[in-house]
Amino acid sequence: MKNKNLIYYLMLFIVVCFYSCKQEGEYHSITDKIEADQKPYHGNLSSEELLAGTDLIQIIEGEHTFLIPERKGQIKSYACIECHSKPLNEMKGVDSQKAHWDIKINHAALETMDCATCHNPDNMNNLKSLTGKDIDYNLSYKLCAQCHSRQFEDWKGGAHGKKVAGWAPPRASMTCVNCHNPHNPGFETRWPVQFNTQKVKERKDDLGH
Amino acid sequence: MSESKKWFSLDLDLNKKSESSGTCGCGNTQESCGSSHKQEELSAEEFYEAAINASIGDERKKDGFEQVFDVQMDRRDAFKKLTASLLIGAGAVSSCTSVVQGADSKEKAQIDWEEQFKGNYKLMTDDEKKQTVDRLMRSYELRTGKNINMSSKNAEEDVLFGYAFNISKCQGYMNCVTACVEENNQDRKSQMQYIRIHEMKDGKGFNFNEADDNYYHEVPAEGHFYMGTQCFHCDNPPCVDVCPVQATWKEEDGLVVIDYDWCVGCRYCMAACPYDGRRFNWSKPEVPENEINKNQHYLGNRIRKKGVMEKCTFCVQRSRKGKNPACVEACPTGARIFGNLLDPDSTIRWVLENKKVFRLKEDLGTEPKFWYFMD
């Protein structure tokens, strides 16, 4: 008798277990689902076709490897030594041609930065780090990262800045100078590109919600 | 007794059958009311009323098939019904088989016929999906003489789309809104927009009651921040649950989509969405021919019709090709991040793991796949 009861209880236990088992593909939250189903994407989709027309260079920063647009080819007056054949103070003067007259620095206070903070008068073809080391124009983000370290961290991870093409790998991120003018990096205030006049009308007539 | 009640109760004439059977809408008894005894000469409207009464009135007693076919009718009514259905059939047949009409109009009629009786997109096989987009492309060509490209591309494997929005970066320029309207062929006249950018006062938190989503002044305005909302493609979408005809559902890659041809326009989903993510076409959507985005997807930006729901699809026509949605591409500040949640190397995953993210109305359990974060 006792044995029989035990068997009944055991059967009940198994049945309960069976029904309480989580169904496959059912998760408590989306984060659980992401964690359970994640794997590096090697699917059919790729951004390669979208990136085909852009000159890109690969960079490795910490644990992040991704592409950024090549820069030197985009600068009209590169290479700089084509004009800067003499040291800078020899080129200054009344007789010589005026150049870069349209550049006004609006980037940090004058005590903090001037032209020579980033440009090396003795080596115009490269940028200059704070300690006087050369930085390639293609890798200008290294220059920005000296001060803007927090933005740099976000950019490396992908939280700051824009992508060149799609979401699918390989990842290609725009670099600092693709959005910010290095001499005037702030964003201007401007008017929104859109105004919904219909919404105004509906709300005036109390038709909206 | 019923007068003293403080609530309204529906009187279905169940209890007082004998009293009320002789009355009609005008409140008089049968003798003095003009319309009720002239039953042989029913107008179209009255016939409709009668048919509704006949079918719905018996609903409590009868089931499915019987509700429709056990309707009491005299010979005249029966003839009316029969003629109507014959006319519908004959119209279709005549346009298909007529020797007078051209081949084009025959083909048009054939396409319309097949489109009318096609099934729910969700249940279609890949072949059927292909056939319906081919039909729609051909139909567009026959009607306008121009070609469009419509895709029926299914969800990719190992992809789950997610979105992140940086509140500290958004400046309220609204380039995203413009790009969205152009990409998704939204109705220009009603100025339908999927995205709303809310201008919120600093120090007031996320106060949607006091936020302005239709500002027009130089931005960013002093002392304000900006926050965008759109369809969040919830993992547990309430809009899908309430749809009585299953015209909206969640795809494998997490996109919540609508079959515009299956939608009956009841707008339950609009009411169920806690984020105001859905839009309704009150009029026939119209887009100038030269502004139509011809790169379309069946579930995405193809031209809708009057009386159906639509909403953001994370630009299914773009995202399923590996591109970013139009809003992401248009954003001048980089406030919008899109990607594959299942790929641990994706930038969206880096944001989720390294930034302090939150979602709107998280306590509702809708599990949006749209996160907000700050620098």
What is the string of SSEs of chain B from the N terminus onward?
Answer: HHHHHHEEHEEHEEHEEEHHEHE
The overall strand count of chain B is 11
Q: Pair with the most extensive interface?
A: A-B, 49 and 63 residues
Shape of chain A: elongated
Strand order across the largest sheet of chain B? 10-2-11
Helix content of chain B: 25-40%
Radius of gyration of chain A: 30 Å
Assembly level: heterodimer
Structural class of chain A: mainly alpha
Contiguous runs where pLDDT drops below 50 for at least 5 residues of chain B: 16-39
- Characterize the biggest β-sheet of chain B: 3 strands, mixed
The computed structural class of chain B is: alpha/beta
Radius of gyration of chain B: 27 Å
Mean pLDDT of chain A: 88
**SSE succession of chain A:** HHHEEHHEEHHHH
Descriptive notes:
The complex is a heterodimer of chains A (209) and B (375). Chain A is built from 9 helices and 4 strands. Chain A is mainly alpha-helical and 209 residues long. Chain A starts with a helix and ends in a 5-residue tail after the last helix. The mean pLDDT of chain A is 88. In chain B, 31% of the residues lie in helices and 12% in strands. Chain B contains 12 helices and 11 strands. Chain B has helices at 17-20, 44-57, 64-69, 75-97, 103-116, 126-144, 175-183, 238-242, 268-272, 316-319, 326-330, 347-354; strands spanning 149-151, 161-166, 196-201, 224-229, 248-250, 256-258, 278-280, 295-297, 309-311, 336-340, 370-373. Chain B has a 3-stranded mixed sheet. A two-stranded parallel ribbon of chain B has the order 1-8. The radius of gyration of chain B is 27 Å and the shape is globular. Chain B starts with 16 loop residues before the first helix and ends with a strand. The interface between A and B is large, with 49 and 63 residues.
